[in-house]
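dumping the sequnces here before i forget
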Amino acid sequence: MKPRPAYSILPTILILVVLFAGWEGFVHLRAIPPYLLPAPTRILRTLFANPALYGRASLLTLGEALTGLLLGVITGTGAALLLSIWPRFERAVMTIAILVKSTPMVAIAPLLTIWLGFGVLPKIIITALLTFFPVLVNVISGLQHADPALVDLFHSWHAGRWEIFRFVRLPSTLPYLFAALKISAPLSLIAAVVAEWTGASGGLGHIMWLAYSNLNLPFLFGSVFILGLAGVASYVLLTWAERRLVFWQEMEL
Amino acid sequence: MEVSVKDLAHTFNHTAPAVHVLEDLNLCVKSGEFVAIIGANGCGKSTLLRLIANLLQPKQGSITLDGLPPAQMTASRRVVWMSQNPALLPWYTARQNIQLAQRFARPSPDVQSPVEELLHLVDLENFADAHPHTFSGGMQQRLSLARALAMDADLWLMDEPFAALDELTRERLTIQLDEIWQRRRPTVLWVTHSIPEAVRLSDRVLVITPRPGRLFGEVAISLPRPREDTTPEFQMHVRALKDMLFVSEGLP
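..and the predicted 3d for all of it:
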């Protein structure tokens, strides 16, 4: 695989610069008040003026999102593996999983906050619930879509189920797991923030909620900027890891 | 290992209409014999090998290996099957792919051929630690062949193992394979589309009719080895088989 040349991210940077310059220019030219739309420079100034506040909030929210994501990945992968051993439960588990998935997060989140309080636990549970489904579906898919030629080869070796599972099916799920992670990682941020909106004692979602109540939009946008950055960073990190771990598949960003 | 196929018929029912792949097929391969199988595309040659390798169960008729059902022979790892698809594990290097096969091979690890030696046989000794996705189609097939040799089986079921190779590599590997076969003397069923390759390697060439596949005829090749494809006897066999193949396919 050829290493991607550094200049290939130039168009991305260019588009971002144009976008933010346009935003900045628009706010200044039309003299938009900051309580309606703050200029990007104003948002950045707010961010840098309150490093401790945003730092603590970021750690909390990203921690919740990451813990929830890990929980979702572990339970999702675990459930998929169990279903591959006992396929007769697949329909039952999938029905429950779809039920959970199609219940709106904004309906469950307040309930969990009422039951479990303002701490991190309801945020982690909400995040895990939301990230569980893509992982479950993708890992099941990966286990089922192992290369039939490889499965035949192992049958011709008179290999057992466990050996086929270990040498063929399990490694085959890796690309699917990464596809799930790319969906689940940004989702985990959204889940953590929305859960914080329903009641929290800290975090980026909490800052957004407070800033929204006071119409302090520069403060609100500060959180949005951090979340956007975290989302992009998670995607870049996952793509980087994917290239190294799933090296046998050609892929593009 | 003696291979005996009696009144074999096989149908694929999962397609509509059902496809009759093989019908009334009878053949017998002596222990240590090298038998090539030629025939039109889709005449059931691959299916025949899959049936013998116990990857499919025959709908009618019987297959026995040394008088036993194929399941028993594959369980004791005395049969190796090589498909047209190289079927390499992409997450493993060339070396690891062969080592994995040796895990499943019958001979104990201390009498197995070293991986380097097997890779050298197929000219891949410099690629031991490379991954198959960096290989060309021909290299992948060669690695697959080395892996099949690593199994050190008594019966080799080979489905067009040289199909993706260029002319020169095919030539060199044919010579090497001839030597290996003479040394180890396994029983070989070799499916191919190349008549010269069949004449070069085998003791007997079987011609299968188009679908449903039956045995159309056979030609015994008793030329001394190694065989030169330029000799008149060699050319005579090639021509005879070509004619037989034409007639079997109902072509003028």
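The longest helix of chain B spans residues 167-184.
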